[in-house]
Design goal:
Blueprint: H1 3-6, E1 14-18, E2 24-29, H2 35-43
Antiparallel strand pairs: 1-2
């Protein structure tokens, strides 16, 4: 089994937002201008 299958990666790029405590906050694949910044602003307050 490849690492992509082990972690359920279905696309590239693949992003994971992890909290300072090590908890996975959000996971998504794909790219769009400004998406990373928007997702961080939505989840990190």
């Amino acid at each position: 089994m490849g690492i992509y299958a082990h972690y359920g990666i279905k696309g590239i790029p693949h992003y994971v937002i992890v909290s300072p405590e090590g908890r996975i906050i959000h996971v998504w694949s794909g790219y769009g201008t400004g998406v990373l910044k928007k997702k961080l602003e939505e989840r990190v307050k």
